[in-house]
Amino acid sequence: MAARIALVEDSEEVRRFARMLLVRKGFEVDEFPDGAAAIEAIVSAPPDLVVSDVQMPRLDGLELTRRLREKFDKSVLPIVLVSVMSEEEDIVRGFEAGANDYLVKPYRNTELLAKVSVLAKEGPYLRRPDEPTIPDEKLDIDEGPRDSDTRLLSLGNKAEAEVKYFFDKYEIRGEYGRGGMGTVYRAIKRDDGRQVALKVLSPRLSESRTAIARFLREIKVLSEIDCANVVQVFDHGYDNGRYFLAMEAVEGDALDRMVQKDGPLGERVTANIFAQTARALQAIAEKGLVHRDVKPANILRRSDGTVKLVDFGLAKHEHDQSGLSESGYALGTPYYIAPEIIEGGKPDARSDLFALGVTMFEVLAGVRPFAGAVPYQIFKLIVSGPRPDLRDHRPSLSNALILIAEKLLERDPLKRYQHAHTVEADLVELEKRLP
Fold first, then answer.
1. How far is CA 365 from CA 217, 269, 271, 338, 362, in A?
2. Catalytic positions, please?
3. What is the pTM of this model?
4. What is the CATH number of domain 252-433?
5. CA nearest 117: which of 80, 86, 159?
6. What percent of the chain is modeled with pLDDT above 90?
Protein backbone atom coordinates (compact mmCIF):
# COMPACT_ATOMS: atom_id res chain seq x y z
CA MET A 1 0.00 0.00 0.00
CA ALA A 2 1.38 3.38 -1.03
CA ALA A 3 2.25 5.85 1.72
CA ARG A 4 -0.03 8.89 1.89
CA ILE A 5 1.60 12.31 2.01
CA ALA A 6 -0.05 15.55 3.18
CA LEU A 7 1.53 18.32 1.09
CA VAL A 8 1.02 21.79 2.63
CA GLU A 9 2.25 24.63 0.40
CA ASP A 10 0.75 28.04 -0.39
CA SER A 11 2.44 28.39 -3.79
CA GLU A 12 0.31 26.56 -6.34
CA GLU A 13 3.22 26.21 -8.73
CA VAL A 14 5.56 24.72 -6.11
CA ARG A 15 2.79 22.49 -4.80
CA ARG A 16 1.97 21.16 -8.27
CA PHE A 17 5.63 20.38 -8.99
CA ALA A 18 6.19 18.65 -5.62
CA ARG A 19 3.00 16.62 -6.11
CA MET A 20 4.22 15.47 -9.53
CA LEU A 21 7.52 14.27 -8.02
CA LEU A 22 5.83 12.41 -5.18
CA VAL A 23 3.15 10.78 -7.34
CA ARG A 24 5.80 9.60 -9.81
CA LYS A 25 7.60 8.01 -6.87
CA GLY A 26 4.43 6.09 -6.01
CA PHE A 27 3.04 8.14 -3.10
CA GLU A 28 -0.55 9.22 -2.65
CA VAL A 29 -0.72 12.98 -2.14
CA ASP A 30 -3.31 15.19 -0.41
CA GLU A 31 -2.79 18.90 -1.17
CA PHE A 32 -3.48 21.85 1.15
CA PRO A 33 -2.86 25.57 0.46
CA ASP A 34 -1.89 26.40 4.07
CA GLY A 35 -1.81 25.07 7.62
CA ALA A 36 -5.32 26.25 8.48
CA ALA A 37 -6.77 24.19 5.63
CA ALA A 38 -4.64 21.17 6.50
CA ILE A 39 -4.82 20.74 10.26
CA GLU A 40 -8.38 19.46 10.63
CA ALA A 41 -8.01 16.97 7.79
CA ILE A 42 -4.66 15.72 9.12
CA VAL A 43 -5.99 15.27 12.67
CA SER A 44 -9.14 13.47 11.54
CA ALA A 45 -7.42 11.21 8.99
CA PRO A 46 -3.66 11.16 9.71
CA PRO A 47 -1.43 10.61 6.66
CA ASP A 48 1.84 8.69 6.79
CA LEU A 49 3.90 11.88 6.42
CA VAL A 50 3.50 15.66 6.28
CA VAL A 51 5.60 17.88 4.00
CA SER A 52 4.93 21.52 4.85
CA ASP A 53 6.21 24.91 3.79
CA VAL A 54 7.14 27.20 6.70
CA GLN A 55 6.03 30.61 5.47
CA MET A 56 2.29 30.57 4.77
CA PRO A 57 -0.38 33.28 5.22
CA ARG A 58 -2.74 31.28 7.45
CA LEU A 59 -1.19 29.06 10.11
CA ASP A 60 2.45 28.77 9.08
CA GLY A 61 4.41 25.53 9.05
CA LEU A 62 5.98 26.03 12.48
CA GLU A 63 2.63 26.51 14.20
CA LEU A 64 1.10 23.66 12.21
CA THR A 65 3.93 21.40 13.39
CA ARG A 66 3.51 22.50 17.03
CA ARG A 67 -0.24 21.76 16.96
CA LEU A 68 0.25 18.38 15.31
CA ARG A 69 2.85 17.47 17.91
CA GLU A 70 0.17 17.95 20.58
CA LYS A 71 -1.66 15.04 18.94
CA PHE A 72 1.01 12.87 17.35
CA ASP A 73 4.51 11.76 18.32
CA LYS A 74 7.10 12.37 15.61
CA SER A 75 7.63 8.62 15.18
CA VAL A 76 3.92 8.25 14.40
CA LEU A 77 3.51 11.29 12.13
CA PRO A 78 6.83 12.41 10.60
CA ILE A 79 6.97 16.03 9.44
CA VAL A 80 9.40 17.55 6.94
CA LEU A 81 9.52 21.36 6.95
CA VAL A 82 10.53 23.13 3.74
CA SER A 83 11.60 26.77 3.59
CA VAL A 84 13.78 29.37 1.88
CA MET A 85 14.93 30.36 5.37
CA SER A 86 18.33 28.72 5.70
CA GLU A 87 20.00 30.30 8.73
CA GLU A 88 20.93 28.01 11.61
CA GLU A 89 18.42 29.83 13.83
CA ASP A 90 15.64 29.05 11.34
CA ILE A 91 16.54 25.37 11.26
CA VAL A 92 16.73 25.29 15.06
CA ARG A 93 13.20 26.69 15.27
CA GLY A 94 12.00 24.01 12.89
CA PHE A 95 13.42 21.19 15.00
CA GLU A 96 12.18 22.79 18.21
CA ALA A 97 8.68 22.94 16.74
CA GLY A 98 8.85 19.17 16.29
CA ALA A 99 9.99 18.59 12.70
CA ASN A 100 11.74 15.33 11.86
CA ASP A 101 13.72 17.04 9.12
CA TYR A 102 14.22 20.42 7.46
CA LEU A 103 14.78 21.04 3.76
CA VAL A 104 16.05 24.36 2.38
CA LYS A 105 14.65 25.77 -0.89
CA PRO A 106 15.67 25.58 -3.63
CA TYR A 107 16.21 21.87 -3.13
CA ARG A 108 17.18 19.14 -5.54
CA ASN A 109 14.40 16.73 -6.50
CA THR A 110 16.45 13.85 -5.16
CA GLU A 111 16.77 15.55 -1.75
CA LEU A 112 13.01 15.79 -1.28
CA LEU A 113 12.37 12.25 -2.50
CA ALA A 114 15.15 10.80 -0.35
CA LYS A 115 13.92 12.45 2.86
CA VAL A 116 10.30 11.49 2.21
CA SER A 117 11.18 7.92 1.24
CA VAL A 118 13.28 7.31 4.35
CA LEU A 119 10.72 8.73 6.77
CA ALA A 120 7.76 7.03 5.07
CA LYS A 121 9.60 3.70 5.03
CA GLU A 122 10.18 3.78 8.78
CA GLY A 123 6.43 3.79 9.36
CA PRO A 124 4.76 4.25 12.74
CA TYR A 125 6.90 3.14 15.64
CA LEU A 126 4.82 3.61 18.76
CA ARG A 127 6.64 3.78 22.05
CA ARG A 128 5.16 1.67 24.79
CA PRO A 129 3.76 3.87 27.57
CA ASP A 130 5.82 2.05 30.19
CA GLU A 131 9.18 2.63 28.52
CA PRO A 132 11.55 4.78 30.61
CA THR A 133 13.13 7.91 29.21
CA ILE A 134 16.80 8.51 28.52
CA PRO A 135 18.96 8.31 31.66
CA ASP A 136 19.86 11.57 33.35
CA GLU A 137 23.37 12.72 34.15
CA LYS A 138 23.39 11.23 37.66
CA LEU A 139 23.19 7.52 36.92
CA ASP A 140 26.06 5.32 38.01
CA ILE A 141 27.86 3.26 35.40
CA ASP A 142 28.69 -0.39 35.83
CA GLU A 143 31.55 -1.13 33.46
CA GLY A 144 30.62 -4.80 33.26
CA PRO A 145 32.93 -7.61 32.16
CA ARG A 146 36.15 -6.42 30.52
CA ASP A 147 36.17 -9.06 27.80
CA SER A 148 32.84 -7.88 26.40
CA ASP A 149 33.89 -4.21 26.42
CA THR A 150 30.32 -3.41 27.42
CA ARG A 151 29.04 -0.79 29.83
CA LEU A 152 25.60 -1.25 31.31
CA LEU A 153 23.66 1.60 32.83
CA SER A 154 22.24 0.76 36.22
CA LEU A 155 20.55 2.64 39.02
CA GLY A 156 23.44 2.10 41.39
CA ASN A 157 22.77 -1.51 42.36
CA LYS A 158 25.22 -3.58 40.34
CA ALA A 159 23.54 -6.82 41.33
CA GLU A 160 20.16 -5.92 39.87
CA ALA A 161 19.13 -6.79 36.33
CA GLU A 162 20.19 -4.60 33.43
CA VAL A 163 17.97 -1.56 33.02
CA LYS A 164 17.09 -0.58 29.46
CA TYR A 165 16.63 2.99 28.34
CA PHE A 166 15.10 4.27 25.15
CA PHE A 167 15.59 7.42 23.13
CA ASP A 168 13.44 7.90 20.06
CA LYS A 169 14.10 4.88 17.79
CA TYR A 170 17.16 3.77 19.80
CA GLU A 171 17.78 1.55 22.78
CA ILE A 172 20.70 2.72 24.90
CA ARG A 173 23.04 -0.06 25.97
CA GLY A 174 25.91 1.83 27.57
CA GLU A 175 28.09 4.87 27.34
CA TYR A 176 31.16 5.72 25.25
CA GLY A 177 31.99 8.95 27.04
CA ARG A 178 30.97 12.49 27.98
CA GLY A 179 32.16 15.87 26.80
CA GLY A 180 31.32 19.53 26.95
CA MET A 181 28.49 19.21 24.41
CA GLY A 182 26.82 16.09 25.78
CA THR A 183 27.05 12.33 26.13
CA VAL A 184 27.80 9.69 23.50
CA TYR A 185 25.87 6.51 24.21
CA ARG A 186 26.32 2.99 22.92
CA ALA A 187 22.95 2.16 21.36
CA ILE A 188 21.11 0.00 18.85
CA LYS A 189 18.40 0.97 16.38
CA ARG A 190 15.35 -0.89 17.58
CA ASP A 191 13.86 -1.83 14.22
CA ASP A 192 16.94 -3.47 12.69
CA GLY A 193 19.44 -3.91 15.54
CA ARG A 194 22.11 -1.69 13.97
CA GLN A 195 24.76 -0.59 16.47
CA VAL A 196 25.24 3.17 16.63
CA ALA A 197 26.96 5.83 18.67
CA LEU A 198 24.18 8.14 19.85
CA LYS A 199 25.41 11.65 20.65
CA VAL A 200 22.83 13.48 22.78
CA LEU A 201 23.09 17.18 23.50
CA SER A 202 23.45 17.93 27.21
CA PRO A 203 20.22 19.03 28.97
CA ARG A 204 21.86 22.25 30.13
CA LEU A 205 22.66 23.13 26.50
CA SER A 206 19.32 22.13 25.01
CA GLU A 207 17.97 25.61 25.77
CA SER A 208 20.99 27.39 24.25
CA ARG A 209 20.45 28.49 20.66
CA THR A 210 24.20 28.76 20.14
CA ALA A 211 24.79 25.21 21.38
CA ILE A 212 21.91 23.87 19.29
CA ALA A 213 23.17 25.67 16.19
CA ARG A 214 26.66 24.22 16.75
CA PHE A 215 25.18 20.74 17.19
CA LEU A 216 23.15 21.07 13.98
CA ARG A 217 26.24 22.30 12.18
CA GLU A 218 28.08 19.12 13.19
CA ILE A 219 25.24 17.10 11.65
CA LYS A 220 25.40 19.12 8.44
CA VAL A 221 29.19 18.83 8.21
CA LEU A 222 29.18 15.04 8.64
CA SER A 223 26.35 14.65 6.14
CA GLU A 224 28.47 16.34 3.46
CA ILE A 225 31.49 14.02 3.75
CA ASP A 226 31.82 10.63 2.08
CA CYS A 227 35.09 9.11 3.21
CA ALA A 228 35.87 5.75 4.78
CA ASN A 229 38.12 7.48 7.33
CA VAL A 230 35.47 9.93 8.55
CA VAL A 231 32.81 8.74 10.97
CA GLN A 232 29.46 8.41 9.18
CA VAL A 233 26.19 9.96 10.34
CA PHE A 234 23.01 7.89 9.99
CA ASP A 235 20.26 9.89 11.61
CA HIS A 236 19.45 12.95 13.70
CA GLY A 237 16.44 14.43 15.41
CA TYR A 238 14.81 15.86 18.49
CA ASP A 239 13.13 13.83 21.20
CA ASN A 240 11.97 14.50 24.74
CA GLY A 241 13.56 17.96 24.73
CA ARG A 242 16.95 16.66 23.58
CA TYR A 243 18.75 16.84 20.24
CA PHE A 244 20.51 13.70 19.07
CA LEU A 245 22.86 12.49 16.37
CA ALA A 246 23.18 8.80 15.46
CA MET A 247 26.62 7.96 14.09
CA GLU A 248 28.62 4.95 13.02
CA ALA A 249 29.75 3.01 16.09
CA VAL A 250 33.54 2.82 16.00
CA GLU A 251 34.85 0.08 18.27
CA GLY A 252 38.51 0.77 18.83
CA ASP A 253 41.06 2.83 20.70
CA ALA A 254 41.82 6.53 20.35
CA LEU A 255 45.49 7.33 19.81
CA ASP A 256 45.92 8.83 23.27
CA ARG A 257 44.62 5.62 24.83
CA MET A 258 46.92 3.51 22.62
CA VAL A 259 49.95 5.46 23.84
CA GLN A 260 48.80 5.27 27.45
CA LYS A 261 48.45 1.49 27.23
CA ASP A 262 51.43 0.52 25.09
CA GLY A 263 53.75 3.51 24.96
CA PRO A 264 54.83 5.56 21.91
CA LEU A 265 53.83 4.11 18.55
CA GLY A 266 56.19 2.42 16.12
CA GLU A 267 57.11 4.03 12.82
CA ARG A 268 55.17 1.69 10.53
CA VAL A 269 51.91 1.92 12.48
CA THR A 270 52.35 5.69 12.79
CA ALA A 271 52.82 6.06 9.03
CA ASN A 272 49.73 3.94 8.37
CA ILE A 273 47.50 5.72 10.91
CA PHE A 274 48.48 9.22 9.83
CA ALA A 275 48.20 8.43 6.12
CA GLN A 276 44.57 7.46 6.75
CA THR A 277 43.99 10.53 8.91
CA ALA A 278 45.46 12.73 6.18
CA ARG A 279 43.03 11.10 3.73
CA ALA A 280 40.17 12.11 6.03
CA LEU A 281 41.48 15.68 6.24
CA GLN A 282 41.76 15.84 2.45
CA ALA A 283 38.10 14.79 2.11
CA ILE A 284 37.15 17.50 4.58
CA ALA A 285 39.24 20.15 2.84
CA GLU A 286 37.68 19.31 -0.54
CA LYS A 287 34.34 20.33 0.96
CA GLY A 288 35.85 23.62 2.14
CA LEU A 289 35.73 22.46 5.75
CA VAL A 290 38.17 22.79 8.65
CA HIS A 291 37.96 20.24 11.48
CA ARG A 292 39.57 22.54 14.09
CA ASP A 293 39.95 19.83 16.75
CA VAL A 294 42.48 17.34 15.38
CA LYS A 295 44.09 15.61 18.36
CA PRO A 296 44.88 12.07 19.55
CA ALA A 297 41.53 11.63 21.31
CA ASN A 298 39.68 12.30 18.04
CA ILE A 299 41.55 9.74 15.93
CA LEU A 300 40.31 6.18 16.48
CA ARG A 301 41.79 2.94 15.16
CA ARG A 302 39.59 -0.10 14.81
CA SER A 303 40.78 -3.66 15.32
CA ASP A 304 40.94 -4.17 11.54
CA GLY A 305 43.33 -1.21 11.22
CA THR A 306 40.83 1.28 9.78
CA VAL A 307 41.28 4.79 11.16
CA LYS A 308 38.33 7.11 11.79
CA LEU A 309 38.43 10.85 12.42
CA VAL A 310 35.63 11.79 14.85
CA ASP A 311 34.11 14.72 16.77
CA PHE A 312 33.13 17.45 14.32
CA GLY A 313 31.56 19.70 16.95
CA LEU A 314 33.96 22.55 16.14
CA ALA A 315 34.16 22.03 12.37
CA LYS A 316 33.09 24.82 10.06
CA HIS A 317 33.40 26.03 6.49
CA GLU A 318 36.70 27.78 5.81
CA HIS A 319 35.02 31.05 4.80
CA ASP A 320 32.25 30.93 7.41
CA GLN A 321 32.26 34.20 9.34
CA SER A 322 30.14 32.79 12.17
CA GLY A 323 31.73 33.11 15.61
CA LEU A 324 29.84 30.22 17.13
CA SER A 325 32.83 28.38 18.54
CA GLU A 326 35.79 30.68 18.48
CA SER A 327 36.26 30.64 22.24
CA GLY A 328 35.82 26.88 22.41
CA TYR A 329 38.39 26.43 19.68
CA ALA A 330 40.91 28.70 21.36
CA LEU A 331 40.49 27.34 24.86
CA GLY A 332 39.29 23.76 24.42
CA THR A 333 42.44 22.15 23.01
CA PRO A 334 45.26 24.70 23.24
CA TYR A 335 48.09 22.20 22.62
CA TYR A 336 47.06 21.76 18.99
CA ILE A 337 46.32 25.34 17.88
CA ALA A 338 48.31 26.57 14.86
CA PRO A 339 50.41 29.70 15.49
CA GLU A 340 48.60 31.74 12.83
CA ILE A 341 45.30 31.14 14.68
CA ILE A 342 46.81 32.26 18.00
CA GLU A 343 47.94 35.45 16.27
CA GLY A 344 44.42 36.19 15.02
CA GLY A 345 44.35 34.48 11.63
CA LYS A 346 41.51 32.39 10.24
CA PRO A 347 41.73 28.59 10.40
CA ASP A 348 42.15 26.72 7.14
CA ALA A 349 43.22 23.26 6.00
CA ARG A 350 46.85 24.04 6.91
CA SER A 351 45.93 24.73 10.54
CA ASP A 352 44.43 21.22 10.67
CA LEU A 353 47.75 19.92 9.32
CA PHE A 354 49.65 21.72 12.08
CA ALA A 355 47.42 19.95 14.62
CA LEU A 356 48.14 16.69 12.80
CA GLY A 357 51.85 17.37 13.25
CA VAL A 358 51.44 18.03 16.98
CA THR A 359 49.48 14.79 17.26
CA MET A 360 52.13 12.84 15.35
CA PHE A 361 54.89 14.22 17.58
CA GLU A 362 52.89 13.32 20.69
CA VAL A 363 52.26 9.67 19.74
CA LEU A 364 55.87 9.15 18.64
CA ALA A 365 57.53 10.89 21.59
CA GLY A 366 55.01 10.09 24.31
CA VAL A 367 55.01 13.78 25.32
CA ARG A 368 53.45 16.91 23.87
CA PRO A 369 55.75 19.20 21.89
CA PHE A 370 54.25 22.31 23.50
CA ALA A 371 53.51 21.78 27.19
CA GLY A 372 52.41 24.36 29.73
CA ALA A 373 50.23 24.79 32.78
CA VAL A 374 47.91 27.41 31.26
CA PRO A 375 46.90 28.31 27.68
CA TYR A 376 49.07 31.45 27.69
CA GLN A 377 52.22 29.41 28.33
CA ILE A 378 51.29 26.89 25.67
CA PHE A 379 50.48 29.57 23.08
CA LYS A 380 53.78 31.34 23.76
CA LEU A 381 55.70 28.11 23.11
CA ILE A 382 53.75 27.44 19.90
CA VAL A 383 54.34 30.94 18.52
CA SER A 384 57.90 31.67 19.61
CA GLY A 385 59.32 28.84 21.71
CA PRO A 386 62.20 26.53 20.72
CA ARG A 387 61.40 24.13 17.90
CA PRO A 388 60.57 20.70 19.32
CA ASP A 389 62.86 17.91 18.11
CA LEU A 390 61.70 14.28 17.98
CA ARG A 391 65.34 13.17 18.15
CA ASP A 392 65.47 14.34 21.76
CA HIS A 393 62.91 11.63 22.61
CA ARG A 394 63.38 8.95 19.91
CA PRO A 395 66.92 9.14 18.45
CA SER A 396 66.32 5.96 16.47
CA LEU A 397 63.47 7.35 14.37
CA SER A 398 64.07 7.45 10.64
CA ASN A 399 65.06 10.79 9.18
CA ALA A 400 62.20 10.61 6.65
CA LEU A 401 59.51 10.41 9.33
CA ILE A 402 61.11 13.21 11.35
CA LEU A 403 61.15 15.44 8.25
CA ILE A 404 57.44 14.83 7.67
CA ALA A 405 56.64 15.75 11.28
CA GLU A 406 58.84 18.85 11.09
CA LYS A 407 57.18 20.04 7.89
CA LEU A 408 53.75 19.64 9.49
CA LEU A 409 54.95 21.69 12.45
CA GLU A 410 56.31 24.63 10.45
CA ARG A 411 55.21 27.89 12.11
CA ASP A 412 54.85 29.65 8.77
CA PRO A 413 51.82 28.11 7.01
CA LEU A 414 53.45 28.83 3.64
CA LYS A 415 56.34 26.49 4.56
CA ARG A 416 54.01 23.84 5.94
CA TYR A 417 52.39 21.09 3.87
CA GLN A 418 49.71 22.83 1.79
CA HIS A 419 47.50 19.81 1.14
CA ALA A 420 46.67 16.70 3.14
CA HIS A 421 46.93 14.44 0.07
CA THR A 422 50.66 15.31 -0.12
CA VAL A 423 51.07 14.24 3.51
CA GLU A 424 49.27 10.98 2.73
CA ALA A 425 51.48 10.31 -0.31
CA ASP A 426 54.69 10.89 1.67
CA LEU A 427 53.54 8.62 4.50
CA VAL A 428 52.40 5.85 2.14
CA GLU A 429 55.78 5.96 0.40
CA LEU A 430 57.57 5.91 3.77
CA GLU A 431 55.55 2.93 4.96
CA LYS A 432 56.66 0.96 1.87
CA ARG A 433 60.30 1.56 2.74
CA LEU A 434 60.07 0.73 6.45
CA PRO A 435 61.18 -2.73 7.58
1. 35, 14, 14, 19, 5
2. 293
3. 0.63
4. 1.10.510.10
5. 80
6. 44
